[in-house]
Amino acid sequence: MNNEVNEIRISYCEKLGVIDSEPVTDSAHVAKLLYENWDKSTIGLQETFKILLLNNANKVKGTYQASTGGITGTLVDLRLLFAVVLKTASTAIILAHNHPSGTLRPSKADEELTKKIQKAGQLFDIKVLDHLIIVPTGTYYSFSDNGLL
User: Fold this and answer.
1) Number of alpha carbons in the 13 Å side-chain half-sphere of residue 47
2) What is the full DSSP assignment across 76-115?
3) How big, in percent rounded to 5, are the helix, strand and coil portions of the chain?
4) pLDDT score at 112
5) Cβ-based neighbours of 44, under 8 Å, separated by 6 or more
6) Does residue 38 register a pLDDT over 70?
7) In what order do the strands lie in the sheet with 92-98?
8) Mean of pLDDT values over 114-129
9) CB atoms within 10 A of CB 127
10) Element (H, E) at 64
11) pLDDT for 83-112, tens place per residue?
12) Which distant-in-sequence residues (6+ apart) come within 8 Å of 104 by Cβ?
């Protein structure tokens, strides 16, 4: 019998000067930031789910693409999503995904996933500040602005 186990190491290396950056203050600011960094060659083709990782001052630590799906949906593994959130020591997140069809209304699945992520975040004292749906034109829908968060 072998008494050895795998060792897991966790590291975090800040490269973008988060401390010197401006905090995100509203959904328009977040939508602009996300849209400018979205792959324009696929935003109208397939759904992608991302999270914006924030520190306690709402300054952006980075983004993480949690999943890429098909034309009408994408699956998000909460274990992987929160592994990234915890590894980066983020205290808040903003969820985002695109609707290639241009529809700005959230689906029932969008609403259920948001609630599921919000509930999981509460266990770790991680705030879900918003969930944005971004369409190929750059227009967006904010769950927070529309009272769904």
Assistant:
1) 20
2) --HHHHHHHHHHTT-SEEEEEEE-TT---SPPHHHHHHHH
3) 25, 25, 50
4) 96
5) 100, 136
6) yes
7) 60-68, 48-54, 92-98, 127-134, 140-142
8) 97
9) 18
10) strand 60-68
11) 999 999 999 999 999 999 999 999 999 999
12) 133, 135, 139, 140, 141
